[in-house]
Amino acid sequence: MKRKKPNIDRIFHALGDATRRAMVVRLSQGPMSVSRLAEPFEMTLAAVVQHLQVLEECGLVQTEKVGRVRSCRIEPTGLDAMEEWICDRRSVWERRLDRLGDLFGGSEKDG
Amino acid sequence: MKRKKPNIDRIFHALGDATRRAMVVRLSQGPMSVSRLAEPFEMTLAAVVQHLQVLEECGLVQTEKVGRVRSCRIEPTGLDAMEEWICDRRSVWERRLDRLGDLFGGSEKDG
After folding, report:
1. pLDDT in tens, A28-46
2. Do A28 and B93 touch (CB under 8 A)?
3. Quick check: pTM over 0.80?
4. How sure is the predictor about A88, in pLDDT bands with cuts at 50, 70 and 90?
5. Residue A73: helix, strand or coil by DSSP?
6. Which of A12, B20, B66, B70 holds its CA 20 to 30 A away from the CA of A50?
7. Residue A100 phi, psi (nearest 5)
8. Residues B63-90 as b or e (16 or more Cβ within 10 Å = b)
9. Cα distances (angstroms) measured from residue B24 to each of A8, B8, B109
10. Interchain contact B9–A (C-beta under 8 A)
11. Residue A30 burial (CB < 10 Å; 0-12/13-18/19+)?
């Protein structure tokens, strides 16, 4: 079983593609085999596997071969890494708004 | 002032590009003019404006022309939309894990 550390640059690049986003949505329903994952997508299995590799390389998905079947599932730490990136942007922004609020008398702190 | 409703497909596509992610990181420090935003990027102002348009179209950034200067700032609802998408994926996944936990006797709820 390969397990990739989440890479935020690659994650955003991976999710910039509509097919890969749809795969993540499908996998968030639960783990499934590559062929079942491929069902709704009008493309060759080879193309699905290529997209899956991109998702695995960035740490959003984990795949594991059990016997002859390759099973795939969401890797939650990939979602965590994205959420952290967003929170970091937001917290810088909100700290700034807080400072502006203080400057313009919006602060009602005691002491 | 144009204000675009966040579009999650376009947001992920927009952030799939390293330059545009760097612009969002820079703008999360606070609003600034286009020329100040452009400073660290080794590209023409026209190229910066093009990236900025992508960020504005997807609802991650807002720009406003005041006199002769175009000012840009983060549009927090764009970050909200992304966070919601991630939370939706995670909640489906976690509900599934909860159900598995219940099946295997992990539930310790009263009543």
Report:
1. 889 999 999 999 999 999 9
2. yes
3. no
4. confident
5. strand
6. B20
7. -65, -40
8. beeeeeeebbbbbbebbebbeebbeebb
9. 14, 16, 44
10. yes
11. middle
